[in-house]
Amino acid sequence: MALGEMVMTVEADILERYQRRTPGSRARHEEARRYLPAGDTRSATWFAPYPTYMVAGEGAWLEDCDGNRYLDLLNNFTSLVHGHAQPDIVEYAADQLTRGTVFGTAAEPQVALARLLIERIPSIDLLRFTNSGTEATMMMMRAARAFTGRDIIVKMDGGYHGSHDFVEVSVSADLDCASAPAAKVEGRGVPDAVLNAVMVAPFNDLGALEALLRQHHERIAGVIVEPMPNAGGMVPPAPGYLRGLRALADEYGVLLLFDEIVTLRLGSGGFQAIEGAIPDLTAVAKIIGGGFPVGAFGGREDIMAMFDPAASPDFVFHSGTFNGNNMTMTAGLEAMQRLDQAAIERINRLGESLGAGINRIFRSLGIGAQCLGYGSLQQIHWTGEPVRTLADARRAGDNTGQLRRLLHLELLNRGVYTSNRGMFSITTPVNEADITLALRAVENALNTLLPYMRATAPRLLRG
Ligand SMILES: Cc1ncc(COP(=O)(O)O)c(C=O)c1O
Questions:
Q1: Cα–Cα–Cα angle for 440, 390, 181, nearest 5°?
Q2: Distance from C-alpha of 72 to C-alpha of 61, rounded to nearest angstrom
Q3: Which of 18, 218, 240, 266 is the most buried (most CB within 10 A)?
Q4: Predicted pLDDT of residue 463
Q5: CA atoms within 13 A on the CB side of 304
């Protein structure tokens, strides 16, 4: 069979099996498109030909509207660290539901969750709740500007911190200029004016950041970084990098802001505690809401005190109708109490064993690709070369044609739900047998894709 024909056959076969398994999803998608652009309400969850409609979740498993079951290794993009409908979380939330969801006053559940987070996360003396991670990074950046009286925040080229305008800058890494990437607005509708208040530097490169700080530090309020960038590709920080950031921030008198919205799950005090690199401000979200919408930002007492109207008439404004609502706080407290050190170590071990297993499969099939990450968070990169920067990660992804998309669909065909960029995260209900099942699905899916790789990306195949 000619190579072109082989490509078409593999792709058509995967799509055909997906569509045959999911007629109910297809019908629902067609109906949904009449009311919602692309039939959905979130760019990250859409994929072609149409997303799977899940109708129920229990523990580590999801069921779609056609009765297919999936091992969920996405868990709402890492946020459901205890999987779906964890019985104790359900019980606490149901009890709270009967007593009121939100009162428009201060309420005790906020205090309990705030206390737990402050006891665990080294950088946080005081915190404020929001309804999303996007709001958390937005407010954290506002706090840094208000405290320093300076406008510019440096973010990492290729880093994602949510969807507010000031971080919709250089979300995909610059492939041409590794050491001094230019800040660029990402996507339509974001005003060029944000470039007056954002600069970018490459992740894992202290020298490049120092050059930027040396030249501009008098205008810079702070540097925001995800200790291990999630959307950037789960690229681990180089040894000493995060402590190096702390030292540079101190040397140049700027604030250090960590976005631990995804990485908090890796250690009870987040990645900052693992690395001993303590920022001035931290944003968290996802797992801290027990499955409900959430975010929080906090940090040094002198910075966070700016939000106290009793301390100063010139306080920093921060509001939100559902901030700290009873449902999120109650479910979040139970979720975080259940996520003790032993639980974190267990899911980290399972994640490492999934990553190592995928790397073994790549080697045995002669595929030059790799799984990277830390503990319960792992991601496939389609290159055998080292991936140190977010530009390396993007380059590996960009050069794969339809491979990422087809692997995602083929894993769905084989009963494993992941992100369509090849990211896996582990929840507490996952067990060793689930990892074995996931590895078998990955191996079979890669075998299905081998002829496609041979035709479209032979550089990935050894021998
Ligand atoms: C690192 C990081 N920061 C911020 C956000 C935004 O959080 P949210 O989707 O809750 O607004 C995300 C979401 O995936 C994220 O991964």
A1: 165
A2: 5
A3: 266
A4: 67
A5: 19
User: What is the bridge-based pairing of β-strands 281-285 and 295-299?
Assistant: antiparallel
Tokens of 43: 């760019």
- Range 3-28 average pLDDT: 92
> Domain of 367: which CATH number?
3.90.1150.10
For 67, the token pair is: 């009765």
| pLDDT(307) > 80 | yes
Cβ–Cβ < 8 Å for 235, 173: no
Q: Which residues pair with 461 in a beta bridge?
A: 367
Burial class of residue 333 (count of CB atoms within 10 Å of its CB; 0-12, 13-18, 19+): buried
The CA 384 to ligand 1 mean position distance, Å, reads 29
How far is ligand 1, taken at its centre, from the CA of residue 451, in Å? 36
Active site residue 155: no
Q: How far is CA 46 from the centre of its chain?
A: 16
Tell me how far apart the alpha carbons of residues 409 and 16 are, in angstroms, rounded to a whole number.
10
How many CA within 13 A on the CB side of residue 234?
Answer: 25
Per-residue pLDDT reduced to its tens digit, 91-149: 999 999 999 999 999 999 999 999 999 999 999 999 999 999 999 999 999 999 999 99
Show the domain range for 369.
3-81+341-460
User: Are 296 and 351 part of one and the same domain?
Assistant: no
Do strands 423-425 and 295-299 pair parallel, antiparallel, or not at all (unpaired)? unpaired
Please work out whether the CB of residue 130 comes within 6 Å of at least one atom of ligand 1.
no
Query: End-to-end CA distance of the chain, in Å?
Result: 20
Q: The domain that contains 271 carries what CATH number?
A: 3.40.640.10
- Tell the residue nearest (CA) to atom 8 of ligand 1: 133
Name the token pair of 412: 């769905």
Q: How far is the CA of 293 from the centre of ligand 1 (A)?
A: 11
Active site includes 160? yes
* 3-state SS assignment for residue 322: coil
Non-local CB neighbours of 446 within 8 Å, separated by 6+ positions? 361, 362, 365, 367, 407
Question: For 369, which DSSP code?
Answer: -
pLDDT: which is higher, 56 or 181: 56
If asked whether residues 212 and 302 sit together in one domain, one would say: yes
Is residue 259 flagged as an active site residue?
Answer: yes
* Atom from ligand 1 closest to the CA of residue 135: 11
Is residue 62 within 8 A of residue 427, CB to CB? The reply is: no
Question: Taking the CA of residue 57 as centre, how many other CA atoms within 13 Å lie in the half-sphere pointing to its CB?
Answer: 21
For residues 208 and 60, state if they share a domain.
no
Q: Is ligand 1 within 6 A of the CB of residue 161?
A: yes
Q: How many domains does the chain have?
A: 2
Helix extents (H) in 388-462: 390-398, 403-413, 432-456
